[in-house]
Amino acid sequence: MPEQKKLQGRVALVTGAGKRLGRQIALRLANEGADVAVHYGGSAAEAQEVVQQIEKLGRHAAAFQAQLTDVAAIRNLVSQVVAHFGHLDILINSAANFLQTKFAETPESAWDASLDTNLKAPFFCAQAAAPHLAKSGHGAIINFADIGGLVGWREFMPHSISKAGIILLTRVLAKELGPAVRVNALAPGTITMPGDPPEWQQDFIEHAALRRSGRPDEITDAIMFLLTTGFVTGHTLVIDGGRTL
Q1: pLDDT of amino acid 73
Q2: Is the CB of residue 135 less than 8 Å from the CB of residue 89?
Q3: Assign residue 56 a region: left if phi > 0, alpha if psi is -120 to 50, beta otherwise?
Q4: Number of domains observed in the structure of the chain
Q5: Residues with Cβ within 8 Å of residue 101, at least 6 apart in sequence
Q6: pLDDT digits over 167-180, tens only?
Q7: Domain CATH number, residue 98
Q8: pLDDT of residue 134
Q9: Is residue 4 part of a domain?
Q10: d(Cα 186, Cα 48) in Å, to the nearest integer?
Q11: Given a cut of 80, is residue 194 above it in pLDDT?
C-alpha cells in the first residue's frame, strides 16, 4: 500500500496563494496530501496556474477571489470554500503587503492599508473559519508575522506594528479557539524569492548569523512542523538565520 501522506484528506485555505510564498505553501500542502483552496486578490492567472499544478499532483484545488479588506467578502470566501470542498481543516493567513513609509510622510491611507491587510484580514478570516475548523479534529491556523513585528523597522512603521499585532493575535486566538483549533505563527526574515533585488540578498546575508538568506522550502518545512505537531499552540516561530540576534 502507498504511504499515507501527512495531510491526506484535509482541506486547506491559503490566502494570497497566487504568488511568492503563498504559492509555495499551497503547492507544499498539496504535495503532503491536502486539497487546497487557492485564494487570490488580483492575481487570477497566477492562481489558476497554481490550481493546475496542484491538480497535476493528484489533489483537488480551486481558486477563489476575494478582497480581504472587506469583511463580507471574507465571510463569503470561507462559505464558498466549505461549500465547494465540504469541510475546512487548515487556514494559512499568508496574504500581506509590505509598504514603505517614512514616519513624517506616512499618510492615513498607508496606515489603513497595512493594518487592514496584515492584521484585520487575518482576524476576520480566523473568525469566519473557526466554526468549521473546530469540527475538523485537525483544526489549525497559521498566521504570518515577520521579524519586523519583533524588532521594528524604520520607514516601515505601520507594517511593523501590523506584524507585532499578528504575534499577539496568534496568542489570543490560541486561547480563544483551543483545544479544538491550534493557532501558531511564523516570523520569517532573510528569505529571498526569485526575482527579488540582489541587494536584498546581500543585506540579508550581512545581517544573518548564518551568513545566508533563507529558502522558501525552509518556510514550508516550518509550516509542516506546526501543522503536524499537536502540542504547540500560541507560538511564533522565528525563521531568520539569526538575523534578530
Answers
A1: 98
A2: no
A3: alpha
A4: 1
A5: 107, 110, 155, 156, 157, 158
A6: 999 999 999 999 99
A7: 3.40.50.720
A8: 98
A9: no
A10: 26
A11: no
pTM exceeds 0.85: yes
Nearest to 130 by CA among 8, 13, 9, 7: 13
What single letter denotes the amino acid at residue 205?
I
- The range of the structural domain enclosing residue 172 comes to 11-239
- Residue 93 within a domain: yes
5 found inside a domain: no
- Residue-level pLDDT at 76: 98
The grid coordinates listed for 146 are: 515577520
d(CA 52, CA 122): 26
- Whether the Cβ atoms of residue 214 and residue 221 lie closer than 8 Å to each other: no
Residue 1 has pLDDT above 60, yes or no: no
8 A C-beta contact, residue 98 and residue 19: no
- What's the confidence (pLDDT) of residue 243? 86
2 within domain boundaries = no
Question: 91 with 128: CB under 8 angstroms?
Answer: no
What digits encode the pLDDT tens for the residues 72-83?
A: 999 999 999 999
Express each pLDDT in 123-139 by its tens digit.
999 999 999 999 999 99
Structure confidence by residue, pLDDT tens digits, 7-64 = 999 999 999 999 989 999 999 999 999 999 999 999 999 999 999 999 999 999 999 9
